[in-house]
């Protein structure tokens, strides 16, 4: 996949597809951390060892005869502009670490962008699979297919008692990070999140913002993921996460129903005010856009707004990020120009819904 082809296909399958409980769960993601047995971890390895990782994976890419593994192509970070790498981060296909700091980093993408394999990030190989809606077990199955395929010709660093060996001790064991991205405006508006987050942490899970560790919960979107990777099977980790997510779905639906019952006119007013801002603004910052898009999505889910696509939040939250805006506008832009372009793009996209 050339980067031009990637750009022409700006919207990934997980942005556009419906999945189970997709009114609340935007995406499910699985990430598997793996290292090559004969090479030092990325924090210590040489440039030659970094190149060796890419070479080994490139050789394996030549064999895509397995029907479960197809249409995978490699992009080297050194061949991409900084803005192009930023877009990959905004689409959740690579991490900021790989984009900004990795030595001889690369990623392998599938045509539908559900599969992304990061090379020479914190670990030699990080396999990622993203699915729309609550499909965390399905994402695990796909990631395991890729993992098994790579292991046919790559000898992983593995300890009989500890499991897969990783750069960070918190990933030792399964090397699995399972996460779901959830839209939780009901619990935010009813002020439940401050109580929920500590409770989730006590269950061995962590709550982060839209772009993972250290990021902000833009648009009332939160990532829920496991913290423990050692001493549990992959299936157990995923089932425990799914169990908590199902409870959060119930609580979010209850919160939305309570808001509609006790504050219906105020909630409807909030939704339509945000809709009006999105349809008419000539300049809008990232945070305001995210807040208004969250309100709009809530209005769609509650039936207040009927003429806008269901997945508008997932789509526009990505397409209005700074990297996307600049790349599609032809180059670097100052913050004010980005805010103007963001408002224009949102108006254009919403106009398509009413034509």
From TrEMBL:
Gene Ontology biological process terms from the UniProt entry: phosphocreatine biosynthetic process
PROSITE patterns tied to this protein: PHOSPHAGEN_KINASE, PHOSPHAGEN_KINASE_C
Stretches assigned to the Phosphagen kinase C-terminal domain: 24-255
Catalytic activity as recorded in UniProt: L-arginyl-[protein] + ATP = N(omega)-phospho-L-arginyl-[protein] + ADP + H(+)
CDD domains (alphabetical): bacterial_phosphagen_kinase (cd07930)
Entries under Pfam families matching the protein: ATP-gua_Ptrans
Keyword annotations from UniProtKB, A to Z: Allosteric enzyme, ATP-binding, Coiled coil, Kinase, Nucleotide-binding, Transferase
Ranges in coiled-coil conformation: 47-86
EC class of the enzyme, as a word: transferase
Keyword Cell division applies: no
GO cellular component, as recorded: extracellular space
Molecular functions (GO terms): ATP binding; creatine kinase activity; protein arginine kinase activity
NCBIfam families according to UniProt: PRK01059.1-4 (NF002194), PRK01059.1-5 (NF002195)
Alphabetized PANTHER family for the sequence: ARGININE KINASE 1-RELATED (PTHR11547:SF38), ARGININE OR CREATINE KINASE (PTHR11547)
Family: Belongs to the ATP:guanido phosphotransferase family.
Name by which UniProt lists this protein: Protein-arginine kinase
UniProt source species: Niallia taxi
């Amino acid at each position: 996949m050339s980067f031009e082809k990637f750009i022409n296909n700006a919207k990934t399958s997980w942005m556009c597809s419906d999945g189970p409980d997709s009114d609340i769960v935007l995406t499910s993601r699985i990430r598997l951390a793996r290292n090559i047995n004969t090479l030092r971890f990325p924090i210590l390895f040489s440039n030659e060892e970094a190149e060796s990782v890419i070479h080994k994976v490139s050789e394996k890419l030549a064999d895509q005869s397995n029907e479960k593994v197809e249409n995978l192509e490699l992009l080297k970070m050194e061949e991409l502009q900084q803005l192009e790498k930023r877009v990959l981060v905004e689409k959740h296909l690579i991490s900021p670490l790989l984009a900004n700091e990795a030595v001889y980093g690369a990623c392998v993408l599938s045509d539908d962008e559900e599969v992304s394999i990061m090379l020479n990030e914190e670990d030699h190989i990080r396999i990622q699979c993203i699915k729309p809606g609550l499909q965390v077990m399905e994402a695990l199955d796909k990631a395991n297919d890729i993992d098994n395929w790579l292991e046919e010709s790559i000898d992983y660093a593995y300890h009989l008692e500890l499991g897969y060996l990783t750069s960070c001790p918190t990933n030792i064991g399964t090397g699995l990070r399972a996460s779901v991205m959830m839209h939780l405006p009901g619990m935010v508006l009813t002020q439940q999140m401050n109580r929920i987050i500590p409770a989730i942490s006590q269950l061995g899970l962590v709550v982060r913002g839209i772009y993972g560790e250290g990021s902000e919960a833009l648009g009332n979107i939160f990532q829920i993921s496991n913290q423990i990777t050692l001493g549990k099977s992959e299936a157990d980790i995923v089932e425990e996460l799914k169990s908590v997510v199902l409870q959060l779905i119930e609580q979010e639906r209850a919160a939305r129903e309570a808001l509609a019952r006790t504050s219906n006119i105020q909630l409807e007013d909030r939704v339509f005010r945000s809709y009006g801002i999105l349809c008419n603004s000539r300049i809008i910052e990232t945070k305001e856009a995210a807040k208004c898009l969250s309100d709009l999505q809530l209005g769609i889910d509650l039936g207040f707004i009927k003429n806008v696509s269901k997945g508008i939040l997932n789509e526009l939250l990505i397409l209005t990020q700074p990297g996307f805006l600049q790349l599609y506008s032809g180059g670097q832009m100052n913050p004010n120009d980005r805010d103007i372009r963001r408002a224009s793009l949102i108006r254009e996209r919403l106009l398509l819904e009413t034509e």
